[in-house]
Design brief:
The structure is a homodimer of 349-residue chains.
Chain A (H helix, E strand, L loop, with lengths): L3 E7 L12 E7 L9 E9 L4 H5 L5 H4 L13 E11 L9 E7 L3 E4 L5 E3 L16 H13 L7 E4 L7 H10 L3 E6 L2 H9 L5 E4 L6 H8 L4 E6 L3 H9 L1 E9 L3 H4 L10 H6 L3 E4 L9 H13 L7 E5 L4 H8 L7 E5 L9
Parallel strand pairs in A: 8-9, 8-11, 9-10, 11-12, 12-13, 14-15
Antiparallel strand pairs in A: 1-2, 3-4, 3-6, 3-15, 4-5, 5-7
Helix pairs in contact in A: 3-4, 3-10, 6-7
Chain lengths: 349, 349
């Protein structure tokens, strides 16, 4: 019996804001058995990430910088991080029924090629969705970016943008666990409330209600900002730099407000950068794989003991991937955006 | 007999390009004898530096960031680094005739207040002007910025802007001594020739002849830039970031093209910063006083053995200070701009 694999692909390159009509759902027969070194995975949770938009552009400097950001062509399958269940394995170390995390795709089943890393997940005491969110690349990004790039000291003042997002929501929690004072910004009252009430941020504000971001930050940080964890770029980065203390550090993690508009660029005042000796540093989680074990152990422990929570926003079904993705740029998601494309239990094929 | 001290002061705050008419020459009687802890210094060489313009502005974020960049008010004396000769000393460790370097002023004589550091200069085997240029703050800026901020490795590709200036000309020489490939840019054919023929740069170009800085840098760095030592900011910083290699470092030392125009700001592409994991770091020499001894010993040795040269552009007389200063923003100076306001030999008062 032939199994059909539904997948989402691009109709054409996307420059500017993406919309649902840029994508199409297609089907292809699933290959019946894995080749040597291949693994056939039934996808369970897919991580839906803003950076994928850069891969969909006709041109982006990111395409050549690293393989993980290579260009996506129309019609192609789209690889994406996720958690799945092995349904057939051509690798000795994996067997049917194993839950694995790694680079899967916007599809129901992924034939994972030889050489592609799949991490076996111990799905006993934490929800398996965590391995696509708080314990996946978003988590490592937050952990490495905050601890290694920002090098926080107890008592320092930390500002996080897109603070209710996949990475920001974790940075804020790590910062609180490190004894920092943390303020986050987000784009709705609901998100702001959540930052303060559920995630333990010391304060939070809705940036859409602030006419002057520079003054807003002066109000929230009367003693200045020591660390800015930047997920948005543009005007917020300028305002943060203007409010930074001497020897302040900016982790340049993402620039979502620039992804949809290449003409919108942050121009932080270099006078501030020089005289306040500010460091701005771009980074990627993939440079911190050596921290993965430490990150994973510490974070799992925080989660088990209720010192951290995983904020997830889950849509259901492969058909919902385009809306889930497009929604990232409208600020629809609250926390990590995931799509559940399959069930752990039940028929494997 | 009363000794008259000529000094240069501001007529009014300067926002935008400075001109000679913003300054005035005035005189004041020199105090006859130093108080306890004071030293009266006959100024010999004054260091003329672009950053002073930021101090002359009505408003600049630099004013509050550090004391050394405090605001200059109209009519005030203007402190400035220089080398001079002690004519009267209220300090036990200094005596008449000693040559000293430290914070003096745009004046013929400076009464150095108690607590202000004066470094005794051994003026035997190197010209004393060197202590206001290559062995002064410009030198320490180049040394600390290149070695500590840029962390060069042998064979790396280094780009220096304002490369014939006080700091750039030294960064290029340090880079060559470290086995790097170095290209500089400057604003005239004469300067470009000098970089290549006299300072040992591997290549150099006149930025005024390049319609597209991004393409120009692609031509000069077909394998990309590893280190950018930025003295100018604005469009050149954007072009350099666009041409940087992964893990590239930018030492943000100065932004002379932004000093005269607060509206002109660099907006480097954050996509490059993130995906290429670029670090941009502002710094000031005063944070590196702990490196002074190492810097001074190494650099003196390079100079004595002809491995480095000090490029100096000297005007004569306190009256020439305004033109010397204004000329920095027209690119008049070739190398370190100094004004010789007094002679080592001859009458001390």
């Amino acid at each position: 019996m032939e199994v059909v694999n539904k997948y989402v692909s691009l109709k054409h390159h996307v420059d500017g804001h993406p919309s649902e009509s840029d994508f199409e759902l297609a089907t292809t027969p699933l290959q019946p058995a894995p080749g040597s070194g291949e693994v056939i995975v039934k996808n369970l949770f897919l991580s839906i990430d803003p950076y994928q938009l850069n891969r969909m552009k006709r041109y982006s400097s990111s395409h050549t910088a690293i393989t993980a950001a290579s260009k996506i062509e129309p019609g192609q399958r789209i690889d994406a991080y996720g958690v799945g269940k092995v349904v057939a394995s051509g690798r000795a170390e994996l067997e049917e029924g194993d839950v694995v995390a790694g680079l899967l795709g916007w599809e129901q089943y992924t034939v994972v090629r030889p050489g592609t890393v799949l991490m076996k997940v111990d799905a006993k005491d934490l929800p398996i969705s965590y391995y696509a969110s708080v314990l996946g690349p978003s988590g490592l990004t937050a952990f490495a970016g905050f601890y290694d790039v920002c090098k926080p000291k107890k008592g320092e003042k930390v500002f996080v943008s897109a603070a209710s997002g996949s990475v920001g929501s974790l940075v804020g929690q790590y910062a609180k666990l490190s004894g920092c004072y943390v303020v986050g910004c987000a784009g709705s009252k609901q998100k702001v409330d959540l930052l303060k009430r559920k995630l333990g941020f010391d304060d939070a504000f809705n940036y859409k209600e602030e006419a002057d971001l520079k003054s807003a930050l002066r109000r929230y940080f009367p003693e200045g900002i020591d660390i800015y964890f930047d997920n948005v770029g543009a005007a917020m980065l300028e305002a943060a730099v203007a409010n930074m203390n001497s020897f302040g550090r900016v982790a340049v993690c993402g620039a979502i407000s620039e992804y949809t508009n290449a003409g919108k660029r942050a121009a932080p005042d270099l006078m501030d950068v020089i005289y306040k000796r500010i460091t701005l540093r771009g980074f990627l989680a993939l440079d911190y794989l050596h921290l993965h074990e430490q990150f994973s152990a510490a974070t799992s422990d925080h989660l088990r003991h209720g010192r951290m929570i995983s904020l997830e926003d889950v849509s259901v079904g492969i058909e919902s991937v385009p809306t889930a993705f497009v929604g990232l740029f409208r600020g629809d998601n609250v926390g990590k955006k995931l799509v559940r494309v399959g069930e752990l239990e039940g028929a494997e094929l």
